[in-house]
Amino acid sequence: MKKFLFAILCCGFFSVSFSQDQNKNIAISFENETLYNALIKLEAQQNLQVYFAKEWIPEKMISANFADASLADILAELFKDTLLNFYVLDDSTIVLTRNNIIYDSVPDGFFGKEIDTTVVVKKQRKGNVSPIFFSGQKTVKTKSFPTVRIGRESAQASGETFELRGKAINLRTGNPITNLTILEKAKNIFAVTNDEGEYRIELPVGVNLIETKSLGIEDTKRNIVIYNNGTFDFMLDESIEQLDEVVLEANVAKNVEEASTGNTKIDNEESKNIPLVLGERNILKVATSLPGITTAGEGAAGYNVRGGKADQNLILLDQAVIYNPTHFFGIFEALNPFTTKEANIYKGNIPVEYGGRLSSVFDITSKDASVTDFKGEASIGPVTSNLALEVPVIKDKSGILVGGRGAYSNWILRSLDDENLQNSEASFYDVVAKYNHNINENNDVQLSGYFSNDRFSITSDSIYGYTNRLFSAKWRHKFNDNTTADITLANSQYQFDIEFDTNSINDFDLGFKVEETAFKYKMKSVVNSNHTLDYGVSGKLYSLNPGKIEPRGPDDIISFLEIPEERAFEGGIFLADKFKVSDKLLFDVGLRYSFYAALGASNQRIYQENVPRSEQTLIETQAFDKNEVIETYGGPEIRAGLRYLFTKDFSVKASFNNSYQFIHLLSNNTTISPIDTWKLSDLNIKPQQANQYSLGFYKNFNGNDYEISLEGFYKDQKNILDFKTGARLLLNETIETEVLQGEGQAYGAELLVRKNAGKLNGWLSYTYSRSFFKLDSEFDEERVNNGKFFPSNFDKPHDVSLVTNYKFTRRFSLSTNFVYQTGRPVTFPVGNFVFNGSEFVLFSDRNQFRIPDYFRLDLGFNVEGNHKKNKLAHSFWTVSIYNVLGRNNPYSVFFVTEAGEIRPLKSSIFAIPVPSITYNFKF
Questions:
Q1: Model pLDDT for residues 644-702, shown as the tens digit of each residue
Q2: Domains and their CATH numbers in the chain
Q3: Where is the signal peptide, in residue numbers (predicted)?
């Protein structure tokens, strides 16, 4: 009777009555029935009485046939893979429990001393298992925290600790929470979630008070009672503090602790409160406010990193290459700000998995769609409108992210101070979609697609258009807790076209296209606490159509011309080890072997050696069949970095990189333009090469609220591509006769001072950087500036950016963005002369002069909607003024001849203050 009352009082049972001799063999069958209905059916056939809480019974379907089984065997089969245990109280009574087991007896001395809730009582039952007992006093002390029971206690299980594993998920976004600390403080046991939000922790049987801590995530505590191995997912909310620090929130200690130099991570939220032109968020423009990254000028497409050319940057979206990441001449980025998660920028110690570029990698990832709730974000601005939606497909398993953006920007061109642009037009749009699916705890897949389209007309007779298209698929497999593998397949395409239509006989269509298909297999293995390996293989196939021109109509006299297709294969094999020698000394060392093969079908021109290439020095034309190897290049690439930690908040780092680049941008403009073409290395054009050395000092203050870093770098390059004066690059079948390859040299220092907390936060960056080229030859026509080093088009010694955000309250803030840059180099006419009765202009040495220095101040006022949880949408207003001082910054200087005199003129992009107001809302 005491046992019966004990069961009822402890478990609060729902009862079903039946009665039967438990040793009698039973015949019964179940056909696709719920577990609860199976119990009812068993009750109808047998005379037993069962006590349980109805809400314990899981939604489990039962299909089984028992011909001659005991009651114990039947119940064991029914409760398999559940948290339910059963106890036979007497011949006619069964008691069900969840998680734990009911014991017949207690250990010796149980009533004579207090039992610690965290210690297993040393009374052995069969299977060497210790019963779990908890004292009432301990239960009272922890009852204010939520209690979670994990696992099913088993009489056959052994051991005093069990494994708890699972994921930490952001309740608002559905994204995994990385670097979350899961702690049992009293027992000094902890774990940290990985990049996928996963964790694994060994806990003693019994009650464990678990705490979770992470920057920007609410701290939580809960009692976890563990009976066996099990899983538990932490669904955690964002903290109010995260809203306060949204502009600059980051892993502020990483700058000191990691071994890499010159690397930056930008969360897309960092662009939210930075005033940019026309109120448009732009994660790539935020990057240019950081040290070492700049552009050739306002409205210029492309980025120059540590004195490198714009084509030396590998820009990836979900592991697929974007050849032109900008809209509208570089004023807008071609990435949807609402679907972009973050950008990892590597400009120093570039990881070994990346190859094919000399200066940097912009590894941009899009958000994972929420798998729990339907969400959306939208904005309406003076030039663009934007919408992004997150739609769960399978609850808690998969979701799809869809974003679209369009521009109505014709009024901008008409408002510029240039009569030639009054009838111009420009428009663009981009769409992106991503599907993420968590198959199980060891497998997940991601599918991404992107397309952008630009069309603009600067004159009334020509329409220019260019598109980016990409697709990527990624499968991540977890072999075990220490080893994971990523398999990625990606395809990218960039093309442009020119439609020349004057209603005359000279109308034509002109186009260019480059496409690549890439594959990468990457593995990561945590060997032990001191070694983490990254290794794998990668490869890509290039297909390049250098250009085609054809008449628009049957009466046009333009001759059809198509430059033959170029094809090549680029591959790599890589291995890296992050080796912890001690708490102070950390190495990050890698080796990559890059291989390149130019492929047929192709006709390659062979010229005399040691003389300028021209039609006169052509020896022969050699034909190669399809997929026949024309020429191979490649070699080892070393990626090495080290960090020495003087104190927990001060370190010194050094790195060395060497790399190859096999594809080149053909552009003789000051900055890249949408109609620049690309060229693959072949018999006549060699791959570019670079070596970079870096040294940096990193210090954090006041608990990581402030950080300061100083980095220096030196880079030497060879086979850098440049062009003869007046070179014709478009639709040139003998492009090798127009190009020059020479040496490059860049060096500089980068200072970053950053405040991460408080009402006033932001950063100050200063870069001193020099970039020079040298084109020397024994022949005058292949020598520039007498074979001496001269400044590159983007050489800007001084670059200063100051970004601040002052929060008056949680809803109102004022942002500023100040930029100063040295004027870039230009080549000026310095005189004229007469030869054979004709007058010619005499130019200075290449890039001998500079345009005036550039500086600009932007202001923005940000108003957030109230932070009530229960409302339809959260709004955000941005009122900004770009170039608030109305500075007439010259984009370029050009010259015209009037009345026999040469006059210089300046061209500016935005010569007046440009106000804008943008409304954003999130639901």
A1: 999 988 999 999 999 999 999 987 665 555 667 899 999 999 999 999 999 999 999 88
A2: 2-98 (3.55.50.30), 136-238 (2.60.130.10), 254-470+637-922 (2.40.170)
A3: 1-19
